[in-house]
Fold this sequence. Notes:
This protein is mostly helical. The chain has helices at residues 3-13, 33-38, 40-45, 56-85, 89-109, 118-125, 137-145, 161-172, 176-186, 205-216, 223-253, 265-271, 279-286. The chain has one domain: Methane Monooxygenase Hydroxylase, Chain G, domain 1 (Up-down Bundle).
Amino acid sequence: MSTRKQRGSEVQRHPQRSTPAAGPTLDFERSTPYDDYVGTRTLHGLLRTITDHPAEPAFLVTSQVMELLFGLLRTEFERAQTQLRADDLDAALASLHRATSHVRTLNGSWSSLEWLTPAEFNGFRDDLGEASGFQSYAYRHVEFLLGLKSETLIRPHHSVPDVYADLERALHAPSVYDDVLAFLARRGLLVDVARDLAVEYVPRPDVEAVWTSIYAVPRPTDPMYLLAEELTELADAFGTWRYRHLVAVRRSMGAKPGSGGSSGLTWLERSMQREVFPELWSARTMV
């Protein structure tokens, strides 16, 4: 039975739902439909701290919320890729616009940790062992979809075959930007877009020239201009995410090494130098 048919039959079983004067349904045989749909008991059951420190619940929940948003971003990016491959630019723009909103929600999540001082973090940090956000495979997948690829960074997941295989596929698959460039090529704006997809994207003069020509005479109704601006908004929001991550680490632990063995602050500073959709930025100098 389709979802639409299921919903229709529910309305027939509960006609008061479509009657404005009726109150909300209060009696259910089992759990509420809301709990079933959202999975609230599962979600709230995931708040399993490993210490009694009052700062840890916020740290854990914020990390979990971010993981859910990483998964949501993957969904939007992969949908946008499918739409670009079908030459459905309007739908792809809508997907990219939603993705940018999700990244901004991610950025706002850091507000839940901006009060975290080194002393408070030290109250439970050692109990995390080697656990580190560096090990988030969902975030790594998002980076790969944005073209920030590195074969080395899938190694921490080698012992989890399904996760490793998923990341390895993403490593060798086109990024969102690769699909954007293929879209431009099909419109005769680029000649050759072939490259080794498993390595990080390297800026190209011909791609810069395309974006430069689009921005030289900006037309708000031009689909290519709309695409350029949507990608720029996304790159801008993602850059803010990385900066806020850097600041959060600086505030909570300074320049200490990361719990997962990384150099912490230094690693994040280097990561910020890796640009997303680079020619969209360099083209602005050329206009």
